[in-house]
Every structure is written in C-alpha cells, then in structure tokens.
C-alpha cells in the first residue's frame, strides 16, 4: 500500500495521548490510511479507504515530529500495519523519540517500536505475533462478550510473551456506551491487574 518513502496519510498533528497507559503525555499522531477491520463503532471511519488519502513523503512526517519535540510519536490509523512502516521507523529513529504503535494486530508487524498497544477485535482477531510482542493490551468494551474476549486475549498474551509480567492490561468503554462503562468499571474492580482507559481527549475537546 505504501510506495518507497511514501505513506497514505489521513492526518498528522501534535496533541496529547488521551487514553491508555501513556495518557496525558505530549504526542505527535501520524494517522495512516486504510483499514479492513471495519469496527461499527469506529470514530475514524474516514481512514478506512486507503486510496482516498494522499501519499505523503516520510520525511514530511518526520519534520512534523522534529518540530513538535513531543514525548512520543504515535503511529495509528486506520490500521497502520496495512502499510509497511519500516522506512518511517528508520527515519524517525535518529530523533530518539519513543515510537508507539496502535494496532488491531490483523496484519504482519513491520518497523521497530518502543511500545506496541494492541487493541484486538472479536470479529477480526489479531495475529499471534502481535499477541507475543505487545506492551499494552487495550480492549474496547460494549457488552459482556467483550470482557470474555479481553480475558482470553490477556491469557494468550501472558502465555506467549517472552518478558514477565506481560503487557499492561486495559479495558476501555466504547464511546457513548453506558453499558460498556458499567461493565469496564466492574471488571477493573473485580480484577485489579486491569486498569480503566478513558478517551480523555474527547472530554477536553482536542484531537
């Protein structure tokens, strides 16, 4: 899907990481185009079609990060691994800014990252390699079956992960889902190894 030093890009901007383990840190987001997962609750459906978005030189993305000097750079989507991230990660490496990947895990891993957030989906489970490599497991919760899926994914991650104690575990209520919020809070109270992730950037009105 990418062409040499070009990537299909939806947007790139400097904001804060609004969710997950690194919530609150300054971050440049590189939102790449293309996603075949098709989650019905997705809040960035404009990212699904790859070819509706421009090919952007990798160096332009690196310049955005260089000028912002954030705490981390987040490569997200869409599903970013549907493009080859090798050249982007190589170009970002000299900046010595931690590279974070947010992925559903449905495509092969490319590029090198200091942190991988895996957000697996019940209807399109991740590849085993991503379960073994992730640092953070973040599951979106809408209904009880999502909690069962989260527990199963956590068990698989912990069994496959070479490093102890395995990934950080997060449940995140689906946007606007009162049921998801209730279930996620109850889950965290019952299982203290899990934490609640919230989309705080939406509360703050920032991207």
Could you characterize what this model shows?
The chain has one domain (6-204): Alpha-Beta Barrel (TIM Barrel). Helix 1 runs parallel beside helix 2 (86-92). By secondary structure, the protein is α/β, with parallel strands linked by helices. 42% of the residues are buried. It has helices at residues 58-68, 86-92, 128-133, 144-160, 178-190, 200-204; strands spanning 6-16, 26-32, 55-57, 72-76, 99-103, 115-118, 136-141, 168-173, 194-196. A nine-stranded mixed beta sheet has the order 3-1-2-4-5-6-7-8-9. It is globular and about 45 Å long. Pathway: Purine metabolism; 7-cyano-7-deazaguanine biosynthesis. Keywords: 4Fe-4S, Iron, Iron-sulfur, Lyase, Magnesium, Metal-binding, Queuosine biosynthesis, S-adenosyl-L-methionine. Catalyzes the complex heterocyclic radical-mediated conversion of 6-carboxy-5,6,7,8-tetrahydropterin (CPH4) to 7-carboxy-7-deazaguanine (CDG), a step common to the biosynthetic pathways of all 7-deazapurine-containing compounds. Homodimer.
């Amino acid at each position: 899907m990418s062409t040499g030093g070009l990537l299909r890009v939806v947007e790139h901007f400097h904001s804060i990481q609004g969710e997950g383990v690194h919530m609150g840190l300054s971050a440049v987001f590189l939102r790449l185009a293309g996603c075949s997962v098709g989650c019905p609750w997705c809040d960035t459906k404009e990212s699904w079609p790859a070819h509706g978005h421009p090919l952007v030189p990798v160096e332009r993305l690196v310049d955005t990060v260089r000028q912002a000097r954030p705490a981390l750079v987040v490569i997200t989507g869409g599903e970013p691994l549907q493009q080859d991230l090798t050249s982007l990660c190589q170009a970002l490496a000299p900046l010595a800014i931690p590279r974070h990947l947010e992925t559903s895990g449905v495509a092969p891993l490319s590029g090198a990252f200091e942190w991988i957030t895996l957000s697996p989906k019940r209807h399109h489970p991740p590849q085993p390699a991503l379960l073994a490599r992730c640092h953070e497991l973040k599951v979106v919760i809408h209904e009880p079956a999502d909690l069962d899926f989260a527990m199963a994914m956590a068990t698989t991650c912990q069994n496959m992960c070479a490093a102890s104690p395995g990934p950080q575990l997060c449940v995140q209520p689906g946007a606007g889902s009162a049921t998801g919020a209730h279930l996620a809070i109850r889950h965290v109270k019952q299982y203290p190894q899990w934490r609640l992730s919230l989309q705080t950037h939406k509360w703050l009105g920032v991207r």
